[in-house]
């Protein structure tokens, strides 16, 4: 049996589009990060930059591009929530990726302990206290200490090569 030939393509690191295409080859989950602004109004946006950092203490991170209109709100918010989307929540993820006025009309949202909005029927909800913010290139990295977490048995929504994908069938591992 002959192996398929690998078709490698060099990336011009000075060309953002080419580098973005390379980054896009890594499949990620899709999440909506939320917080409350200074007037206690909900703010949120779609991310795929979420990652676990530590089990002890329980830390996670996500990143936000410097020119985001939501940057100042997240920088001043004490708490944020990360809502990992389920496979049937693609439309919600698309709407939170757009600069539309009332994003929270999409999906069922609840305010968790007056800290941050959480999305019902998602895969995981993390409520985090902002611990640290780090400037890194053209992004800000937000690190949060998890204060509350719950998860469901929903299948997660994936993002790869600029497209949403559904997770194939899988079995729970204990």
From TrEMBL:
Signal peptide: none annotated. It comes from Acinetobacter stercoris. This is p-hydroxyphenylacetate 3-hydroxylase, reductase component. It comes from the Bacteria. The gene is C1-hpah_2. Keywords: Oxidoreductase. InterPro entries: Flavin_Rdtase-like_dom, NADH-dep_flavin_reductase, Split_barrel_FMN-bd. Pfam families: Flavin_Reduct (PF01613). Residues 23-166 form the Flavin reductase like domain.
């Amino acid at each position: 049996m002959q192996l398929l030939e690998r078709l490698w393509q060099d990336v011009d690191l000075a060309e953002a589009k080419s580098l973005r295409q390379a980054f896009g080859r890594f499949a990620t989950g899709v999440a909506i990060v939320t917080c409350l602004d200074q007037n206690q109004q909900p703010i949120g946006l779609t991310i795929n930059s979420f990652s676990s950092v530590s089990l002890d203490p329980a830390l996670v991170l996500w990143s936000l591009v410097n020119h985001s209109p939501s940057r100042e709100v997240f920088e001043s918010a004490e708490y944020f929530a990360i809502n990992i989307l389920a496979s049937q929540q693609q439309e919600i993820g698309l709407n939170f990726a757009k600069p539309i006025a009332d994003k929270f009309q999409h999906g069922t949202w609840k305010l968790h302990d007056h800290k941050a909005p959480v999305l019902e029927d998602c895969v995981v909800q993390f409520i985090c206290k902002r611990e640290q913010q780090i400037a890194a290139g053209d992004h800000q990295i937000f690190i949060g200490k998890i204060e509350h977490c719950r998860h469901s048995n929903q299948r997660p929504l994936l993002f790869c090569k600029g497209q949403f994908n559904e997770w194939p069938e899988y079995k729970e591992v204990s």
